[in-house]
Write a structure and sequence with these properties.
CATH topology: Rossmann fold
Shape: globular
Helix content: 40-55%
Oligomer: single chain
Strand content: 15-25%
Structural class: alpha/beta
Number of helices: 13
CATH superfamily: Vaccinia Virus protein VP39
Order of helices and strands: HHHHEHHHEHEHEEHEHHHEE
Radius of gyration: 20 Å
Distance between the termini: 57 Å
Number of domains: 1
Number of strands: 8
Largest sheet: 8 strands, mixed
Bound molecules: S-adenosylmethionine
């Protein structure tokens, strides 16, 4: 790499702080200026909307790419980032895994190369995830802890599968809150799993294993999990893969076991759909739209699930108040039980 392109930590942090502050301004001030009562064709013509859409696309692009982007920052440390330990007991990689096309063909979230391209991808994703929800950034942990708490409030699962665990942000609250349970996190991304397993070792967690497995077809034995979860997985997949995942969850759950997905699904009005479908294009997440249009209740019933609930999820205090004005994802909790 050309030395002039090397960015020190201070310059990198300053640029990232600037991006985050602008994103916060976008989230509150610019979003609230959009006229929600207008027809969407009319909103699209306004300067405020064009500015809103441009900033959404390019703040995210600037966050990952270019001179001060997260991708550049971690890639200039490529040599320092260790390769995965081959045989650690909390990490099981599969060098022969076949990555699906929907996974490799898109730079998801505008992350150059996505989550599988090189060994820094886990670090890049971890850094990016610190500001996925800009208002929650000071307490971003909240989201996954709230999710775990909402499940543990009504059960005491002993064996848990976190599908698409990434670098373990969704898995950590489970292994921390129920040390007596056995937790498995699966994902396609070797760099994310490697980072997740090293965080678990630092946490001295002995009840978690990370495995490189496709959630569509896991090879786990039938009827062995009390709980199967995912957070922010389904909207990244084409409909056929979503059906495969739900069907796979049904197969590996014990009778009476629970499946819970936290994702972006309920879009109760025209304006919310318009903003979310625009986000899908602007953030390189093409399957958000087909997922939001799927009849998930119908699929769950056909596959034999019961006690189905699909409801808005409060990712931070007060966000479900009808008066709440800032931009947010349509967080939705999809839960069902195997009969
Ligand atoms: C937005 S991330 C969410 C990660 C984590 N659950 C969280 O909440 O931080 C989506 C994850 O899904 C994984 N993924 C996508 N398709 C998958 C599949 N078919 N099987 C397993 N993991 C998959 C990606 O590698 C990525 O880590």
């Amino acid at each position: 790499m050309n030395r002039s392109a090397i960015i020190n930590k201070r310059a990198f942090s300053a640029a990232q702080d600037f991006i985050l502050s602008t994103k916060t301004f976008w989230t509150i001030e610019i979003f609230s200026q959009l006229d929600k009562e207008k027809q969407t064709e009319e909103i699209e013509k306004t300067t405020t909307y064009k500015f809103f859409a441009w900033l959404e696309r390019h703040l995210q692009r600037y966050k990952y790419s270019g001179r001060y982007g997260i991708y550049n920052f971690y890639n200039q440390q490529h040599e320092k980032i260790k390769s995965p330990p081959k045989n650690h007991k909390n990490l099981k990689l599969d060098p022969s895994i076949k990555l699906p096309k929907y996974y490799t063909q898109i730079d998801i979230h505008q992350h150059p190369g996505g989550l599988s391209k090189d060994k820094t991808a886990g670090y890049v994703y971890e850094h990016g995830a610190r500001s996925t929800t800009p208002l929650g950034v000071r307490n971003h942990q909240d989201l996954h802890h709230r999710f775990t708490n909402s499940i543990l409030a009504s059960g005491n699962p002993k064996k848990i599968l976190d599908m698409a665990c990434g670098f373990g942000k969704s898995t950590q609250p489970f292994y921390k809150k129920i040390p007596e349970a056995k937790i498995i996190g699966i994902d396609l991304s070797e760099p994310c799993l490697t980072l997740g397993s090293s965080i678990a070792r630092k946490d001295q967690a002995s009840n978690v294993t990370y495995m490189q497995v496709n959630a569509e077809k896991t090879n786990f034995k039938n009827k062995q999990f009390d709980l199967v979860t995912s957070t922010m997985l389904l909207h990244e997949l084409p409909p056929k893969s979503i059906k495969n995942i739900i069907s796979e969850a049904h197969r590996i759950l014990k009778p009476g076991g629970k499946m819970v997905h936290l994702d972006f699904y309920l879009l109760p009005d025209r304006f919310k759909r318009f903003i979310h479908f625009g986000h899908s294009k602007r953030n390189n997440e093409p399957y958000m739209v087909s997922f939001a249009k799927m009849d998930i209740t119908g699929i769950l019933k056909t596959l034999g699930f019961s006690n189905i609930t699909i409801e808005p999820f409060e990712e931070a205090d007060g966000v479900l108040d009808p008066e709440y004005q800032a931009w947010r994802f349509p967080w939705t909790l999809i839960s069902a039980e195997k009969q």
